[in-house]
Amino acid sequence: MTNEQTTQEAGRAHEQPVHTIITGATVLSRTTRPAPNYTALPRTDVAARGTATFLDDHAIGIRGNTIAWVKPSVEVTLAERDAATTLIDGRGHVAIPGLMNSHTHSPMTMFRGSAEDVPTSEWFNAHIWPMEVNLTERDVTLGAQLAVGEMLLAGVTSFADHYFSTDRIAEVVAESGARALLASTFFSSQGEEGIERSAAFAERWNGAADGRITTAMGPHATYTVNDADLEKTAEHARRLGVRTHIHASESPSQTRSSLDRLGVTPIQVLHDTGILETGAIIAHGAGIIEDDLRWLRPWADRVAVASCSKVYLKHAQSGGTPVKTLHDAGITVGVGTDGPASHNTLDVLESVRFLSMVQKNVHSDATWLTSQHALDLATRQSAHAFGLGDSLGALLPGYTADIVLIDTLVPHMQPMHDLAAALVLSVKSSDVRTVLVDGRVVVSGGRLTTIDVASVADELQRRVPALRDTSHGRSIQDYAP
User: What is the structure's pLDDT at 5?
Assistant: First the structure.
């Protein structure tokens, strides 16, 4: 196709009427990142503390998979309404950008509740990793279907996944209408095969499902993948033009152990092996120290840390990701849930609430991490973590139409004084009524349109005895960070 033909095609697409219109909603059009060290600035400097722009009684027009316009509902013409094939009444609802889960292991829904009230090392070595020996590809499909259904119902339109049998997860994403950044997990104990499988998956699926699937390299962690294999990982990432999704500095004890054994922190390992340069999502980062900033700052445009605060509380770990240190240094922080075996839900709204309250407690400062800032972390900053900050995380013309409608008339959201605070501190995932991904309705009236979760859960429940049987005495890996 010539450049002229491409231009003509684009022009014709722009001339097409919008096919979906949402009217009467309050629209969270965009958020802004607060200034560094904003708690030290005057309280009157509202912009410095981060903003969330809400537009009352507005309409959103969708053309293809893109937001064509956002304007007052009264400005929607009769001709536009007549031309649209789908009209959604947004009265009594707030429309927000699709929520983004910056770190999870979606098929681990199959292990939800299977390893509770135990220390982290026992959680891995006595429960999860022995049970994962039993996994079949069908288990991964079922676990992913249940997870994607759970996330869509909770307004989570995108998730960054890190797991095994990733082709099965990709198939679920493609069929369900969700969006995902997928990484195929590997350990150095698997030899060259693990790295090559991760790279082949990343190449095979990147851009699939009409662009809803993007990929990353998936080394498990700095303590399970050696430096030589991390260097090979970075080479593959550069060749393929993808990011790397990895666990690193998950806790202060991991950082201390790395310094004692190697003389460097896990973050320096990521720098020295080229991982940071390729762009990375660093899962957890609760052990990141001040000295690590010199390795992170040069790659601030392509590196993000995913924080999963509920998990750190559950496992009696530290105060979690040093969000304030990272924020003040200009490093992106995204909101994650971790896997449902550790977090128990895939609810990003819940994760945002935990993150907000944990951070206030850690710093003994009620003015730190405002509700506006928390919303920015869950939308715009998480979009940057995915490498999609130019197309997701806001409801603006030209952005991809990943949209969530939340009922604000429920009792626990009333009366309404501060909508940003309500979305962080009062909302429940069950308040989500409508979800669109890529301009397509995937949840309507609080019901999924693409996945039969009841039948999935029924089949998965029948698999529980086989999954829990660890009499074989084997494990996929030993947890000894």
Answer: 47
Alpha-carbon distances of 360 from 237, 241, 319, 322, 368, rounded to whole Å = 37, 38, 10, 12, 6
Q: How far is CA 185 from CA 78, 107, 396, in A?
A: 51, 13, 35
What's the pLDDT score for residue 43? 87
| CA 166 to centroid of chain Cα atoms | 17
pLDDT in tens, 249-291: 999 999 999 999 999 999 999 999 999 999 999 999 999 999 9
pLDDT at 8 over 60: no
Burial of residue 398, with CB atoms counted within 10 A of its CB: 0-12 exposed, 13-18 middle, 19 or more buried: exposed
Residue 11 has pLDDT above 60, yes or no: no
Q: What is the pLDDT of residues 90-145, one digit of tens each?
A: 999 999 999 999 999 999 999 999 999 999 999 999 999 999 999 999 999 999 99
Between helix 166-176 and helix 137-153 the angle, nearest 10°, is 40
Distance of alpha carbon 8 from alpha carbon 15, whole angstroms: 11
Euclidean distance between CA atoms 59 and 291, whole angstroms: 47
Average pLDDT over residues 401-429: 98
The domains of the chain, with CATH numbers, are 3-98+395-448 (2.30.40.10), 99-385 (3.20.20.140)
Estimate the crossing angle of helix 137-153 against helix 453-468, to 10 degrees. Answer: 130
Contact 432, 443 (CB under 8 A): yes
Q: Distance between CA atoms of 142 and 149, rounded to whole angstroms?
A: 11
Q: Is the pLDDT of residue 160 over 50?
A: yes
Structure-block tokens of residue 133: 């020996």
